[in-house]
């Protein structure tokens, strides 16, 4: 389970980096350097699509981050419980 979450987390992280870099900001962004003025998604559609894609990737990234943190702390809780039972 942890391995699968790690793989998903890394893939989403790389994809999130690419999506953010491809967004067109005030200065044109990295997206304008690929193809110059060619519009793949239309004039306004690219902004909405990229914004939604960024939000979805960010949500998945946060979920996998919290899941991995919870799973890694589960071992700490078991160890702490084991230590308290050994001291009694």
How would you describe this protein?
The protein is an all-alpha fold and 88 residues long. It has one domain. Helix content is 73%, strand content 0%. It is rod-shaped, with a radius of gyration of 21 Å. The model has no long low-confidence stretch (mean pLDDT 79).
What is the residue-mean pLDDT, rounded to a whole number?
A: 79
What shape does the CA trace take? rod-shaped
Strand portion, in percent? Answer: under 5%
Helix content: over 70%
Q: Work out the oligomeric state of the chains in this entry.
A: single chain
Number of domains: 1
- Distance separating the two termini: 33 Å
Stretches with pLDDT under 50, minimum 5 residues? none
* Structural class by sheet pairing and helices: mainly alpha
Radius of gyration: 21 Å
Note the total helix count.
2
> What is the N-to-C order of secondary-structure elements (H for helix, E for strand)?
HH
Q: What keyword list fits this structure?
A:
88 residues; mainly alpha; 2 helices; 73% helix; rod-shaped
List the helices and strands and how they pair.
Blueprint: H1 2-22, H2 45-87
GO molecular function: protein-transporting ATPase activity
Family: Belongs to the SecG family.
InterPro entries: SecG (IPR004692)
Please provide a brief summary of the model.
With 88 residues, the protein is mainly alpha-helical.
